[in-house]
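Support request, please re-run this one:
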Amino acid sequence: MAKIITEKKFKFEITEGQGKERLDVYLANIMENATRSKIQQLIKAEFVLVNGKIKKSNYQVMPNDVLDLTIPVSPRPDTIEPEDIPLDIVYEDEYLLVVNKPAGMVVHPALGNWTGTMVHALLFHTQNLSDVNDDDRPGIVHRIDKDTSGLLIVAKDPWVHSELAKQFAARTTEREYWAICWGKFKENNGKVIGNIARSKKDRKIFTVSGTEGKYAETHYSVIEEYEFATLLKLKLKTGRTHQIRVHMNHLNHPIFGDYIYNGRIIQAGHTLPKIKQRVNNLLKIMDRQALHAKTLGFIHPKTNEKLLFDSELPSDMKELITKLKV
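Re-run finished. Output below.
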């Protein structure tokens, strides 16, 4: 029988530089596995306090506000039921699929997200998913964050799953991300090497550490520069949790729109009222981190064919780029 956890509690203090934003939108983005509708239900049920007081979903959060969030945790279901959720499948054969995941979709069920995930959608599409992982992650070879969009491999066959996992472990897969970051870079090409470890101040997030954590390496190149932001191409040499987001924040070039890693704080030199208003309008367009897993390449374990897939930037990033060019 599943163990029932009655509730989980979270506390957030809004940092300086945060523009006005609806309470439900802010919490839906800062919580790793939350949807806006779930947050709205919690607010309505008075599980969210702002400075110790009950507020509505449309309350505009402000710097120095303290948010207390309580999440009642339901028991884990015994089985994962297929759900008719649309999927953007860019490739499929009898052994594997490549899916273009939209921002906002959680990859697999976890605490607080027992429904509505990509796994639920995959089970509706096909019953043939690899059982190499535990029951909550059938077919999942690798993951990307909820609010990162882009390409993922899903395995149908257990042997294929294991062989693909070996390619990721050996760092032979090709993965290219595009991101819009704050500021302009001194060099058009560079790399970040720095261990990634959990923050000692907040265990839900990660930081670069000189002594702890796991080795991580990210290479980047500038595609296009704007007034106060840069479009980057990034390649992963390792695959750590939040790697690109942490490394760009470490360079003081956080990803635009990132709720966790300073991407919604207006950077120094851009606080004049006219620019500040423009930035706040851009942040409304980009209600997540501006990060997309654009390219994915690997060797097909069964055919030994090299497969390389590319995807278009999602509409929110396209719109942001258009506005930045003005």
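Confidence is low (pLDDT under 50) at residues 1-5. The longest strand covers residues 174-182.
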